[in-house]
Amino acid sequence: MELLDFLHVNQEEGFLPLTMTLKAAKEYGMSFRDVEIVAMNEGIMPLRYKRNVQSLCVQEQLTLLQSNVLIVGCGGLGGFVAELLTRIGVGNISLFDGDVFEEHNLNRQIGATVPTLGKNKAQVLAERLMQINPSLHVSAYPEFFSLERHSTLLETVHVTVDALDDPTFKKVLARWTYERHMPFVHAAIAGMTLECSTNRCLEELYPTEGKGAETLLGNLSFTVACAAALQSAEVVKLLLHRPHLDQTLFMDLKEYETVLF
Amino acid sequence: MRIVVKLFAHYREGRFKVQEGDFPLGTTAAKIIASLELEKTSPLGVLMVNGRHVSPEYVLREADEIALFPKIGGG
């Protein structure tokens, strides 16, 4: 039986179960990912995306699978963004972080668990993501991102996600990508306050050097998850060429106040 | 001259959300920021007057509305 026949015979109401993808990969000597690509080109959606349909068509799902996203920082924001983008179906993710998980990360960072304490954040997240989607190509860099060393990589990705906790470097990275017309999604949090923007420079948000209110207010789990959800939505919109945020969104979860500027 | 001052997030704590005040001619945005001691709480982020980003040296005018947001940079 040809692969296309196999896929049509084994699809269930337009969806291909994981077990059948694995079986096809083995029988036809292909990678799991390549089987999914062939299936999607035939209009057959991997079953994992059943709850994406209507919001994402099979062609858009294929676009996400073939997209490449760089996440700079794998702590609070980066962990949730990596998780959300993997679950929605982004197929290529590069992760940068030179830090290891510490006990004070357990309050909010999705990769931080008691067993991962002391382990590199990028590598821990990569292992976690691969368990979610066998089609994912994930590259973990256990080092801090540097424009001097890694700008070539930056030029090959479709979107760069700012998941840093250093306003000065956030500003530099935003300016660098802006000047080269490279898609860039920023977010930051402090206490119950968050901000998010797409393809914007950050000089107006960070008029001075140094940290912000996070040193006073800390970083809360739901604030970081909310900011990461907004960033993930922006990444998907950019990848699918849908309208995205064109101002900075500032949100105060204490009073549910949202300001765009 | 009458100026409307709007504060956001934790800048409101112990201060106010919106307040209209009388200020002498020539008052700059920096003067208002200093008078409220905002940066004793945390560094200033966005500074806008009438919805436009301005620098702290901006000289306010009658009926201006100044909005002050704390700088946030955590991840």
TrEMBL record, chain B:
The record's annotation in InterPro entries points to: Beta-grasp_dom_sf, Mopterin_synth/thiamin_S_b, ThiS/MoaD-like
Coiled-coil annotation reads none
> What is any Pfam family matched here?
ThiS
Which Gene3D superfamilies does the entry mention? 3.10.20.30
Q: Which SUPFAM superfamilies match?
A: MoaD/ThiS (SSF54285)
What is this protein's name?
A: MoaD/ThiS family protein
